[in-house]
Specification:
Number of helices: 16
Distance between the termini: 18 Å
Bound molecules: adenosine-5'-diphosphate-glucose
CATH topology of the largest domain: Rossmann fold
Number of strands: 15
CATH superfamily of the largest domain: Glycogen Phosphorylase B
Radius of gyration: 22 Å
Structural class: alpha/beta
CATH class of the largest domain: Alpha Beta
């Protein structure tokens, strides 16, 4: 059997005590059999550019190979081109794109360095799976070093139509890099369509009937493969947490009131300001909910050295402060707000407590929080999911209350509907959602991708 090599910007090297962190680590857990290799950045920043050979570590039979980045490289490659150009572009935020040619050069250089460090570690039968927008040119760089293995790429963000993608300086080069992979995966049909339209309109290549693109004698297959969660495992964690100390404390603090929950990275793509505005409008338009519901927003700080993230934090501090100031009573606050991440088990328990899960990104590749919220519910008395139509998850989770996240009044209406929904309707919606979350798991995601990469049907 061939060995699986995963490549991602950050490598979640398991520490002896720490749990596996992050969506990707969880999603990959099933695919990573003993013997697999995970390659990428260590998360460490050094004063000077690091040398090429990777540092190796091993845990549970899985090898981890990492390289460091210098402070300068981190600024230009990670904060610069990756998160200051590609991230806003792929989330339809052209006004936030700040292109600088030196950052693009550094982005290419880091991808070259990844390829130089990875190529010597590869065996002839290895299957290589590259993740996300930081590493788009990696496949092409490996090919340039004579690597002939099957190489696949999965994009965790949305993909945009050519009218938006054209704004990217070097759009042709980025698209050509994507075409150097054997398989290019997207969460939704809409994102794949956007990619194939870009290839057609910007590169002038006609995709074939099976969503393939042939460039320079090599064919790239574009596939749709929605990511999922370990639904069974997450549901079990929620049940366990229900009996635990933190959930007990949380429920005691609610004193019989309803909990609404939002869980995100603190990111402008997540629609946090509009969401809190929506909650404020609920309290304004439906005073009967005052003192009966509290909104817990967990917004883990993220990418703090990018300007827009600092500005967003100020905007959130302000709207949270305004809402609390306006509506609080001496024994009730409308909003509870935390900017540090919660442990996964605690999170699972809090989702189960919450009468509504509010997932309203302005754009999102998938959004795993929506699936986690569904998995954590008690089927006998489930909460209601409010979901943005612009999350990839909305293509599957149609029984949620679907909202336009740009309209705080629509969010407020959905919150009112959720808080007043009868048990039978909550159960019926949850049954349908649960079936989908259990059908489209993390395991199915990786199996389907690897089958496509091996040239089999998923
Ligand atoms: P993210 O933008 O990080 O991921 P998301 O899918 O919502 O978004 O979350 C990933 C994981 O992080 C989830 O398991 C979630 O529970 C956890 N998480 C988020 N905020 C947290 C917090 N405050 N505390 C603790 N845990 C938190 C990118 C894309 C998404 C896509 C994923 C996977 O932007 O659209 O779904 O990759 O492909």
């Amino acid at each position: 059997m061939s060995r699986l090599v995963i490549v991602s910007n950050r490598v979640p090297v398991p520490t002896e005590r720490g749990p596996r962190a992050g969506g990707l680590a969880v999603a990959m857990a099933d695919a990573l059999e003993p013997g697999s290799l995970w390659f990428g950045w260590s998360g460490k920043r050094t004063a000077r550019a690091a040398t090429v050979p990777a540092v190796l570590a091993e845990a549970d039979g899985i090898s981890y190979a990492t390289i460091d980045l210098s402070d300068y490289e981190y600024r230009l490659f990670y904060s610069g081109f990756s998160n200051g150009v590609l991230w806003p572009l792929l989330h339809f935020r052209l006004g936030l794109v700040h292109y600088r040619s030196e950052e693009y050069q550094c982005y290419r250089a880091i991808n070259r360095r990844f390829a130089e460090a990875l190529a010597p570690l590869l065996g002839p039968d290895d299957v290589i799976w590259v993740h996300d927008y930081h590493l788009i040119p990696l496949g092409e760089e490996l090919r340039a070093r004579g690597v002939t293995n099957r190489i696949g790429f999965f994009l965790h963000t949305p993909f945009v139509p050519p009218e938006v993608f054209r704004a990217l300086p070097r759009a042709e080069q980025i698209l050509a890099s994507l075409c150097a992979y054997d398989v290019v995966g997207f969460h939704t049909e809409e994102f794949r369509r956007g990619f194939l339209r870009c290839v057609h309109d910007i590169l002038g290549l006609a995709p074939d009937a099976d969503h393939g693109v042939t460039m320079g004698g090599r064919r790239a297959q574009a596939i749709v493969d929605p990511i999922g969660i370990d639904a069974e495992g997450f549901a079990a964690a929620a049940e366990r947490a229900w009996r635990g100390n933190e959930v007990r404390r949380m429920r005691a603090s609610m004193a019989g009131r309803a909990l609404a929950i939002g869980v995100d990275r603190l990111d402008y793509s997540k629609g946090l300001v509009q969401r809190l505005d929506g909650f404020g409008r609920l309290l304004a338009q439906h005073p009967e909910h005052r003192q009966r519901v509290s909104f817990l927003q967990v917004a883990a700080r993220s990418r703090e050295d990018v300007n827009e993230y600092q500005e967003l934090r100020i905007a959130l501090d302000r709207i949270v402060g305004d809402t609390i100031g306006q509506y609080s009573e001496f024994d009730w606050v409308p909003v509870r707000y935390m900017t540090r991440p919660l442990r996964r088990g605690t999170l699972a328990g809090f989702y189960r407590v919450a009468r509504m899960g509010v997932v309203t990104p302005l754009r999102d590749g998938m959004n795993l929080v929506a699936k986690e919220y569904v998995a954590a519910q008690d089927s006998r008395d489930p909460g209601v999911l409010i979901l943005s139509r612009f999350a990839g998850a909305a293509e599957e989770l149609t029984e949620a209350l679907i909202v336009n996240p740009f309209d705080p009044d629509e969010i407020a209406d959905a919150m009112h509907t959720a808080l007043t929904m009868r048990l039978e309707e909550r159960q019926a919606r949850h049954r349908a959602l649960r079936e989908k979350v259990w059908a489209s798991t993390a395991r199915r995601f990786s199996e389907q991708f690897l089958a496509a990469l091996a040239g089999r049907d998923g």
